[in-house]
Specification:
The protein is mostly beta strands. The chain has three helices and eleven strands; from the N terminus they run αββββαβββαββββ.
Length: 159
Amino acid sequence: MKISPLVFTFALLSFSLPGCSSSSETVVGPDGSKATVDKSSGTVKVSDGNTTAELGGSTSITEAELGVEFYPGSSEKAGSTFKVNSGGEKDAATARTTSDDPAKVTDFYKGKLKNPIVTDVAGKTLIVGQADSGATLNITVEKKDGQTEITYGSKLPKS
């Protein structure tokens, strides 16, 4: 994805422009790339014709977009979602929380991924594998602020 530096800078700076009369701002770069910031939700959308990205604010994700089911009873962590579609390849990242123990979450995903590789590093568990959907997933599980945080990184096969 090649996004104009002007468009990228605009998207970042738009978060710091409270009080503007519009709830949404859009800028188009000289190369045709475009960034739109919805100031009421904090959502940023960027596109260049071949690639689209959406992040922050009210951006949410479905299990189908992620490529694996959410941990049962978990809640989406606000502002944590990022989605990119580039030439049919889809990448996504999000975070969720649960009150369940990290070991229980790890066991759940070990059963959902084909040939999972599980590594414990610095109090975090990293699970890497492929879901039945074909998505390649990196899932990090850790205890944080009294909750178990589950962070997902996903790459879906080209559609």
